[in-house]
Amino acid sequence: MAKPKPEYDRISELKAFDETKAGVKGLVDSGIKHVPRMFHYRPDKLDKNSSVSNGIHVSIPVIDLEGVKEDPGTLRNIVDKVRNASKSWGFFQVVNHGIPLSVLQDMKDGVVQFFEQDLEAKKKFFTRDYSTKKVAYNSNFDLYSSPAANWRDTLFCLMAPNPPMPHELPEVSRDIMMEYSKQVMQLGCLLLELLSEALGLQPDHLKDMGCTQGLGMLSHYYPACPQPELTLGTTKHSDNDFLTVLLQDHIGGLQILHQNQWVDVPPTPGALVVNIGDLLQLISNDGFRSVEHRVVANCVGPRVSVACFFSTFFLPDLRTYGPIKELISEENPPKYREVTMREYAGYYNAKGLDGTSALLHFKL
Asked: What is the pLDDT of residues 302-347, one digit of tens each?
């Protein structure tokens, strides 16, 4: 009589993986040919069809910021485009954004250098303690709570308002991380001015609410995957911040959910991807949309990206956020209750990237 198969012990597999501190890259470097079970998604979560594979060619808006500060007519035109993109897509790409191409390239190179250095050098930054550490390297922030692990490793750095001391940052990418975060902060301030005006508010409204106070930088490394049909680089999710500015490399893989259809966001040389976060949807009372997106795994790799999150989650911020008073009326009553950033992010992180929006929990 055949012995019964031992039951799958997911927790043991997760712990064994985590204890190596080598991440997904460590699995690939070890020469694995099969994706471990902890990364497997249910087939219904892996629908790889996109608008392109269905023969429909749609693309997210690309907004040229050239002349935004020089000419009132140009500014009005850009604000209109930002409004339309934020309402209907929740995503857009920006070109002529003021960050030099050399800085973008150096930042991507810095991510590769961090993840491809000797494991012992990376291990110094390994932690799952985000509450006291400003710099944290690991694989999957929600490793123990998500239904399946993502095929990626991440370096998290809190870059504002109190950035790490230079010696606290990884030596191989220290200078470019400091320079890039400074430039992204300037761009984020401009984008939030445009978004304020797109809501019909004064340019400084969102800034005065604290939307530009905190900046978290997530550098992602997606190794080549031997069986990309079994897993994802990043699960379907929306972002738990006000605004995200994403730098992606030439490989691609980012998709957004638009009208129940996955739409590819092809890498555009020199462009940055901008998306509305959950908190901006909440305070705009659904005026702007925080849209679900994901990253598909690929066998090319490694893919790198840098996501900069504008959020006050990292601060001891007791302020409550609710729909902006100027935007609500009898015809447009508030759709969400007031919430602190800590409560929102706490719920989001405990839930993990399970494919559902955390916003639903805070609806009135």
From this structure: 999 999 999 988 777 778 999 999 999 999 999 999 999 889 988 8
Adjacency order of strands within the sheet including 232-237: 232-237, 293-296, 254-258, 261-264
Q: What does the alpha-carbon distance between residue 107 and residue 113 come to, in Å, rounded to a whole number?
A: 10
pLDDT in tens, 69-82: 999 999 999 999 99
Looking at residue 362, the DSSP 8-state letter turns out to be G
E strands along the chain, which residues? Answer: 62-64, 91-95, 135-138, 153-160, 215-222, 232-237, 243-248, 254-258, 261-264, 272-276, 293-296, 303-310, 320-321, 339-340
Q: Domain limits of the chain? A: 46-362
CA 153 to chain centre: 13
CA-based end-to-end distance of the chain: 58
Length of the chain: 364
Residue with the two structure tokens 């099969």: 34
Read out DSSP for 234-279?
Answer: EEEE--SSSEEEEEE-SS--EEEEETTEEEE----TT-EEEEE-HH
Read off the DSSP letter of residue 339. Answer: E
In 3D space, the residue among 244, 281, 240, 248 whose CA is nearest the CA of residue 264 turns out to be 248
Side chain identity at residue 296, one-letter code: V
State the greatest distance between any 2 C-alpha atoms of the chain, in Å, as a whole number. 82
> If we measure between CA atoms, which residue out of 290, 254, 323 comes closest to residue 90?
290
Would the pTM of this model clear 0.90, i.e. be above it? Answer: yes
Cα 208–chain centre separation: 23
Domain 46-362: give its CATH superfamily.
B-lactam Antibiotic, Isopenicillin N Synthase; Chain (2.60.120.330)
Omega before residue 36 within 30° of 0, cis: no
Report whether 358 contacts 347 (CB < 8 A).
yes
